[in-house]
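Q: Hi! New to this. If I give you a protein sequence and the SMILES for flavin-adenine dinucleotide, can you show me the bound structure?
A: Yes, paste them in.
Q: Okay, here:
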Amino acid sequence: MENLDAAPERDIRRRYVIGLIARELADAVGPDHVSVDPKDLEAQADDWSWMSQYMRYKNLPHPTADIAVHPANAEEVAACVRIASDFGMPVVPRGGGSGTQGGTFAPYGGIALDLTRMNRILEIDHTSLVVTAEAGIDGPALEEELNAVGLTMPHYPGSFHFGATLGGFLAARGSGVLSTKYGKAEDLVLQVQAALPPGRLVETLPTPNHASGPDLVQVLVGSEGTLGVITQAAMQLEPLPERREFLSFGFPSISEGIEAGRRIMVGRLRPAVVRLYDEKDTQKLASWIDADVEGVLLVLMCDGPSPLVDYEVQQITQVCGEVGGTSYGPELGQLWWDRKYEPFAHGKAPAPPMVFGTTDTCARFDRLEDIYWAKKKVIEEGFAEYGATYTAHFSHWFPWGSMIYDRFYIDQAPSDPDEAMALHDRLWDAAVRASLENGGTLNEHHGVGVKLGRFMREAHGEAFDLLKSLKAAWDPDGILNPGKLGFGPPRRMN
Ligand SMILES: Cc1cc2nc3c(=O)[nH]c(=O)nc-3n(C[C@H](O)[C@H](O)[C@H](O)COP(=O)(O)OP(=O)(O)OC[C@H]3O[C@@H](n4cnc5c(N)ncnc54)[C@H](O)[C@@H]3O)c2cc1C
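A: Thanks. Here is the predicted structure of the protein with flavin-adenine dinucleotide bound:
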């Protein structure tokens, strides 16, 4: 049994070590950019996960770091990682804090590494249509600069106005509303620079397509700060489209809607937007964007040069008609586009005391409908005593399948925080297992964080050991974002 009398002594030792590390960090980044103020630490840990929102609602403290650091450039990030390595101290990177998986929580304390001072565009290569920028730049700031020269980085997540940064887009393989045509963040990235233990700064090859060994870009991308801190990235750009054309269709049921999407994609048409809403999500969307529509709704947008747009609109109209779709004209699509951030506007998004979760998954066409019905059943029947509801839309389509953006909602969380957290976990257990058992993935674009780490072995099987070996080789002390992606605590705490 632990000798409790030793605890205060341990606190004194820890305080001393934290002071020592804070002074070294101040030496590296300047004293004004290091803080141990509990308010700063709380702000750095906070994100948009249900857990975080619930803690705010209940006035409960977050698991915070011991020191917050605000480096100005990649070299300073590398210096911070070196100091952290010297002391075996965890490092928790943070971009805009718009994540939903508790990725910025610091369950083992350590250093909260705020990257938002690193917000410069380093180069716009007009010949190759590539931008290189620091990882802490936020989406709208980058997009504004690009639009001013007729270009766009076509990644518009729902969190566009929640501070999401370039590094955050890449950290969890984000999706934007145009991903069906232009790809997810992981498809847009050409090259990354990252800081790794014990303080080295590495850069991947200048192009992503090569035959020089496995692709290090795609190891760092999606690693959520557990294998390296992304300090800058080169991203593919597009010219702003000459024209955008909107379409919308109603379908008798979700089956015909999925079939329409499948035929569009396997017919190798490339609309920029394809969003199929089940009845309940159509209802929600209609109220959020103030539209008069019900039933299963499909919203599309084609963009690019006029002849291409004309061709795609004509083909899509034909396909949708063939599977029982009724055209609602372009207005609904235009309305959705104009108000696309409304469902996420502050005050409209769900919030505690509601219990909710976006359990997005991704699967091939042949599994999509089974997953949808299986998840609806486990949520609505499995949690009927709580009046749970399930809604879904299919909003990022691939040549082989689609993403299901689905959510559970329970109107009122139990008042006891432990019970509320346990109910939230049980809902996730049911939703994730229904995805995995029916051929879906653990997640599609929100990432894993602290919330879904417990499912990583179930999702990857034996291959999870390979990921763990990679983690052990690149980050032997386990200091990079410990507790995330199912990688467990830092080594020295084991
Ligand atoms: C209302 C709302 C809507 C959303 N809609 C979408 C959507 O449509 N598509 C989508 O993809 N996501 C969406 N998200 C989730 C989230 O906004 C994205 O994952 C976003 O890209 C996170 O960026 P961030 O800078 O805020 O990251 P943070 O929240 O700061 O961090 C998220 C994770 O990434 C790590 N990280 C951050 N920066 C770095 C870095 N430079 N190097 C290494 N690791 C890093 C952090 O440690 C953490 O684990 C939404 C979130 C909200 C609240």
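A: The mean pLDDT is 96. Let me know if you'd like me to explain how to read the tokens.
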